[in-house]
Specification:
Layout (H helix, E strand, L loop, with lengths): L1 E3 L8 H16 L9 H7 L2 H25 L2 E4 L2 E7 L2 E7 L14 H15 L4 E7 L3 E8 L2 H9 L12 H11 L8 E7 L10 H10 L2 E8 L4 E8 L3 E8 L4 H11 L3 E4 L2 H14 L3 E7 L2 E3 L1 H5 L1 H14 L7
Parallel strand pairs: 4-5, 4-7, 7-8, 8-11
Antiparallel strand pairs: 1-2, 2-13, 3-12, 5-6, 9-10
C-alpha cells in the first residue's frame, strides 16, 4: 500500500503552483517581439513549435512538483499484519567482576562464553522485549528493554570486565534488573541472573532484592557459572608478563537457590559451556506466554522515482529555451 513518510511536505506544492500561475500571467502580458504585421510572422511558425513554446514554462513547474513529492518520501508498505506468538519481558543480569576472566570454559573465559550463549538466547526470542544489566561492585543498565536485536547485541558486544570497579554486588544487580521491569505491562516478567561468585558488596542485600522481585511478580532464574575447586586465572605481571595461576572462586549456591525459590524461579549450575547453553535452552522453554500484536514487515522507498526525472526536466527546459525555442531579443 503506497503512503508518504512526510505527507505535510506536499503542502509545498501550493506555492510552486501559485508561482507558476503568476509567471505565466506575466509572460502573457509582455511581448518578445514588436512587429506591425505580427500575424504574418505567426503564419510562418509551425503549430508544433508554438505549442511547445507555450508548454516550455511547465517543464520547470513539473520538475519542482516532482521534487516536492520526492521530499515527502513516497514508499510502499509491503506487509502489515496481526501476528500471534509467545513473548515475555526478560532482563539478563550479567556479572562482569574480575573472576569472570577465569579460563575454565576453554578456549574462552567465562564472560565471553556467557556473552555468546546469551546472544544466541536473545536471537531466538524474536518477539520478546529483552534488556541487559551488568554488575560488579555497582550495577547499571547496559540496554533497556527492546525488540531491536541488533541494538541489544551491539551493547552486549561492548560488555567487558573493567567497565565497573571490581566486586560482586548481586543484590544491586538483581534490584536494577527488577527495576527495569517495574513498569512492564507484560503478563510474564523474568530476570536471568548470571554470576560466578558471592555477594561481597553490602550496599543492598540480595534477599531484599528478591523480596522486591516477589512483590512485583518478577520470576528470577539464577545461574552459577564455573567449575568447582581451583580454576586457571590469567594474571598480568610487570616482570613476567601474562601468566596463569590456579585460584578458587566459591559460588554462594545457597543464596542463589533462595533467590530463585522466593521468586518462583529455579537455580542452575553450569560447569562448562554445553551445560550453560542447555540451561538457557531450558529457560527458553519454560518462559512463554501468548500475545497478539501488529507487525509491519518492511517499506520500499519510491523517492528516486520522482527525484531522478526532475533535473532532467530542468536541463531540457534550459536547452530548449536556449536553442529551438529561444525568444527573440
Amino acid at each position: 500500500m503506497p503512503e508518504f513518510a512526510h505527507p505535510w511536505l506536499l503542502l509545498l506544492a501550493v506555492p510552486v503552483l501559485f508561482s507558476a500561475f503568476l509567471l505565466r500571467r506575466r509572460r502573457r502580458d509582455t511581448s518578445a517581439l514588436r512587429h506591425p504585421h505580427l500575424a504574418l510572422l505567426l503564419q510562418e511558425r509551425s503549430a508544433l513549435r508554438v505549442r511547445a513554446h507555450r508548454a516550455l514554462p511547465w517543464l520547470g513547474t513539473v520538475a519542482l512538483l516532482l521534487l516536492v513529492v520526492a521530499l515527502a518520501r513516497p514508499r510502499d508498505v509491503h506487509s502489515s499484519r496481526e501476528v500471534e506468538g509467545e513473548g515475555i519481558d526478560i532482563v539478563v543480569a550479567l556479572d562482569i567482576s574480575g573472576s569472570m576472566l577465569a579460563l575454565d570454559f576453554q578456549p574462552d573465559n567465562r564472560l565471553e562464553v556467557a556473552k555468546r550463549i546469551i546472544r544466541d538466547f536473545i536471537d531466538a526470542r524474536t518477539t520478546d522485549q529483552v534488556g541487559l544489566v551488568v554488575f560488579a561492585s555497582r550495577a547499571f543498565t547496559q540496554c533497556p528493554l527492546t525488540l531491536d536485536r541488533s541494538v541489544l547485541n551491539g551493547f552486549l558486544d561492548q560488555v567487558q570486565v573493567g567497565l565497573i570497579e571490581d566486586g560482586t554486588a548481586i543484590g544491586l544487580g538483581l534490584a536494577t534488573a527488577v527495576n527495569r521491569l517495574r513498569h512492564s505491562e507484560a503478563k510474564n516478567r523474568t530476570v536471568i541472573l548470571l554470576t560466578d561468585g558471592s555477594n561481597n558488596i553490602p550496599t543492598l542485600e540480595p534477599e531484599t532484592a528478591a523480596e522486591l522481585a516477589k512483590a512485583l511478580g518478577v520470576r528470577v532464574y539464577t545461574v552459577g557459572v564455573g567449575k568447582k575447586g581451583k580454576v586457571p586465572y590469567p594474571e598480568d605481571s610487570p616482570l613476567f608478563g601474562r601468566r596463569t595461576r590456579m585460584v578458587e572462586v566459591p559460588i554462594d549456591e545457597d543464596l542463589l537457590r533462595r533467590i530463585a525459590t522466593v521468586t518462583g524461579g529455579s537455580y542452575f549450575r553450569a560447569e562448562d559451556p554445553a551445560t550453560l547453553a542447555q540451561i538457557f535452552a531450558t529457560i527458553d522453554e519454560l518462559e512463554t506466554s501468548r500475545y497478539k500484536t501488529w507487525v509491519t514487515t518492511w517499506y520500499e522507498e519510491r523517492m528516486a522515482w520522482f527525484a531522478a526525472p526532475a533535473p532532467v526536466l530542468l536541463l531540457l527546459e534550459a536547452v530548449l529555451a536556449a536553442t529551438w525555442l529561444r525568444r527573440a531579443p
